[in-house]
Amino acid sequence: MTSAEHDRLMRANQANWDARTPVHLASRFYGLDQDPDPERWFAPWEWEDLGELTGRDVLHLQCHLGTETIAFARRGARAVGLDFSEASVAAARDIAARAGADVTYVRANVYDAVEALAGRRFDVVYTGKGALCYLPDLDRWAETVRGLLRPGGRLYVAEFHPLLNALGPKPAPGEGPELLLRHDYLGGGGPVHRDATHTYTDGPAVVGATDSYEWTHGMGEVVNALTGAGLAVRRLRESDELPWPRWPRMTVTESGWWRLPEPRIPLLYGLLAAR
After folding, report:
1. How far apart are the first and last CA of the chain?
2. Where does the record place a coiled coil (predicted)?
3. What share of the chain is helix, strand, coil (3-state, %, to 5)?
């Protein structure tokens, strides 16, 4: 697939996320009718891996409503969120203002982040939980991340495990209690086209741009993209917990997240890399 075709599909995704934004703002899933609790979206091991953030420059790529970005600011970081959806960035600015959080939000395609941020470098670049699947080219992404990091800076990816994506991050129509592989685990099969009027939240139907495109990325593809860009992988975790109950038989953990009683399978991973 050519870069021009990639750009066309990403523009479709941008329109889709613009249309999703009012749906997500109205959803119970995000709970933005109350004071936002950004910590709820983080596993305890993420903070352990990220370390002290006070006084650090932290960039959150593909931040959507910026709910997680607020958590970095509350931990003392100079926080910046970047997203390609104009509607999402506008909403994120409003949410941060109401929360009293000092966060800068920038609207740009992730591949244009170096130019959009005028060459600014960061101590930490963070991304994940449903972000990488919207990127067609991970090699280009990894090179972009390298250009955003200071020497010694760190990338942290907290992302849904390819196994979860293969099982399906949300229930299929008529799905029973069985765990069934429904999608590819490995990448390379091209984009998956979806035309959906409802998203992963409980909000109302999406109006307008309902088409979106997602790409499958296996763990090997992620690691090889990063090492190919000159980043060193320092840590890789696999977790059996999710921040929401994907299957009805999931049980609440001590962290307030959810896991299957059995079998123990990876549903989320955390990857720390350094420039």
Report:
1. 30
2. none
3. 35, 25, 45
Cis peptide before 191 (omega within 30 of 0): no
pLDDT in tens, 163-217: 999 998 888 888 888 899 989 999 888 998 877 777 776 667 777 778 889 999 9
Structural contact between residues 241 and 274, judged by C-beta atoms closer than 8 angstroms: no
CA pair distance 259, 265, nearest whole angstrom:
9
Measure the CA–CA gap between 14 and 86, rounded to whole angstroms. 8
CB–CB of 151/275 below 8 Å? yes
Q: Which residues contact 42 (CB under 8 A, 6 or more apart)?
A: 68, 71, 158
**Extended strands (E) in the chain:** 57-61, 78-83, 103-107, 122-128, 149-160, 192-195, 211-214, 232-239, 241-242, 251-252, 258-259, 268-274
Question: Residue 133, Cα to own-chain centre: how many angstroms?
Answer: 9
* DSSP for residue 36: -
Strands 78-83 and 232-239: unpaired
Residue whose tokens read 């991970």:
138
What is the distance, to the nearest Å, from the Cα of residue 262 to the centroid of all Cα atoms in its chain?
Answer: 26
Q: What is this structure's pTM?
A: 0.93
Cβ within 8 Å of residue 152, ≥6 positions away: 274, 275
